[in-house]
Design brief:
Layout (H helix, E strand, L loop, with lengths): L25 H16 L4 E3 L9 E4 L6 E12 L2 E5 L7 E7 L2 E7 L5 E7 H14 L9 E6 L6
Antiparallel strand pairs: 1-2, 2-3, 3-6, 4-5, 5-8, 6-7
Bound molecules: nickel (II) ion.
């Protein structure tokens, strides 16, 4: 178990397009474990590999229903709309309003490189869209409606 340094907005690595994962290796297994540890330690609901400086198409998510590992993920279908507050571990102390689909269906590989389909609504749909954007070098701040604002609890 290891906590990795979370890269913050302004770091070039967050603007790059990540590479597909061709096969599972010990190094990648350790990366995934570390990403989960890092996400939980930071109290996040999702983390993408570029946020720890690795340009691989891997994200981890936990919206309170257990860990989800998505390798080479791809969105298959979206529907509806939700508008709400969003934040990112790479943009600490800030939040902003973003509109996302309310439903997402995606395909990904798990840590054993087995394909699965995941469907999510509300927070899970938002998290999938947010994390997958990271793999193409995009941050939610590009989509914020109005202005980014400070989150109160960070002020203490
Ligand atoms: Ni993020």
């Amino acid at each position: 178990m290891a906590i990795r340094t979370i890269r913050e907005m302004g770091d070039d690595v967050l603007t790059k397009v990540c590479k597909e994962v061709p096969k599972m290796t010990l190094r990648t297994r350790i990366l995934i474990e570390d990403m989960l540890d890092t996400m939980y330690q930071a109290d996040g609901v999702g983390l993408a590999a570029p946020q720890v400086g690795i340009l691989k198409r891997i994200v981890v998510i936990d919206v309170g229903e257990g860990p989800i590992v998505m390798i080479n993920p791809e969105i298959l279908e979206t529907s509806g709309e939700q508008t709400g507050e969003e934040g990112c571990l790479s943009v600490p102390g800030k939040a902003g309003v973003v509109t996302r689909p309310n439903y997402v269906k995606a395909r990904a590989l798990n840590e054993n490189m087995e394909e699965y389909i995941i469907e999510g609504e509300e927070l899970l749909a938002r998290a999938i869209c947010h994390e997958l954007d990271h793999l193409d070098g995009h941050l939610y701040v590009e989509k914020v409606e109005g202005e980014l604002h400070d989150t109160n609890y960070e002020e203490e």
